[in-house]
Amino acid sequence: AQKITQTQPGMFVQEKEAVTLDCTYDTSDQSYGLFWYKQPSSGEMIFLIYQGSYDEQNATEGRYSLNFQKARKSANLVISASQLGDSAMYFCAMRHIWAGTALIFGKGTTLSVSS
Amino acid sequence: NAGVMQNPRHLVRRRGQEARLRCSPMKGHSHVYWYRQLPEEGLKFMVYLQKENIIDESGMPKERFSAEFPKEGPSILRIQQVVRGDSAAYFCASSPTGSDTQYFGPGTRLTVL
């Protein structure tokens, strides 16, 4: 069965520092996509970054990068130069490449950024 | 290009009433997904629809819950005879054909009194 594990319930970081949010996944399929979403206190779900299982390069989007280690089945999110506005819940998710299948979410990590 | 729209944003119902949640996907998106988020939990998949078709409803409770995505108009998630355990945030997401990425609406927070 597919599963996403986020082992860090909460993380704390100072402004301008980098932070890594952990995510491991379990699947027997070869073709899948990995996603990170941000949920601020206002409640909406904001798409941050995507990594395909066949992508050889780690995905990057501005200050976000995804440290993809396929053999270890990990897809950690790295946020560089943290900002106060990065304080939010972060969810790792996975889906299989075939169109139309559901996203499977982890339980999330709460990130708190302090000045 | 407007994002995924959901309304209402907040909905209060008494036990036994019906709840109707609406979702308008992003322009050009033909795939709609509904998820439920209980307090302190991640999102759980409920149902996946394309226009006029339910493709995957493996996450839908067997009773009281139904979903549709008509040819014209928004997708509707309908919960009949609501109970307190239905209190949650319900998110709709959409994606275009050929894309893996789902874009979420702001959610509807349902409170059952």
Please describe what this structure looks like.
The complex is a heterodimer of chains A (115) and B (113). With 115 residues, chain A is mostly beta strands. In chain A, 0% of the residues lie in helices and 52% in strands. In chain A, the strands form three sheets. In chain A, strands 2, 5, 6, 10, 11 and 12 form a six-stranded mixed β-sheet that branches. Chain A starts with a strand and ends with a strand. The model of chain A has no long low-confidence stretch (mean pLDDT 93). Chains A and B meet through strand 5, strand 6, strand 10 and strand 11 of A and strand 4, strand 5, strand 9 and strand 10 of B.
Helical residue percent of chain B?
under 10%
Helix-strand topology string of chain B:
EEEEEEEEEEE
Structural shape of chain A: globular
Tally of DSSP helical segments of chain A: 0
Instruction: Report low-confidence residues of chain B grouped into runs of 5 or more.
Output: none
**Cα separation of the termini of chain B:** 37 Å
Overall pLDDT of chain B, averaged? 93
User: Could you give the count of β-strands of chain A?
Assistant: 12
The biggest sheet of chain A amounts to: 6 strands, mixed
Give the assembly state of these chains.
heterodimer
Counting DSSP E segments of at least 2 residues, the number of strands of chain B comes to 11
Class computed from helices, strands and strand pairing of chain A: mainly beta
Overall 3D geometry of chain B?
Answer: globular
Helix vs. strand class of chain B: mainly beta
Largest sheet of chain B: 7 strands, mixed
Order of H and E elements of chain A: EEEEEEEEEEEE
User: What's the gyration radius of chain B in Å?
Assistant: 13 Å
Give the termini distance of chain A in whole angstroms.
Answer: 41 Å
Estimated helix fraction of chain A: under 10%
Q: Which protein chains are joined by the largest interface, and how many residues does each one contribute?
A: A-B, 25 and 28 residues
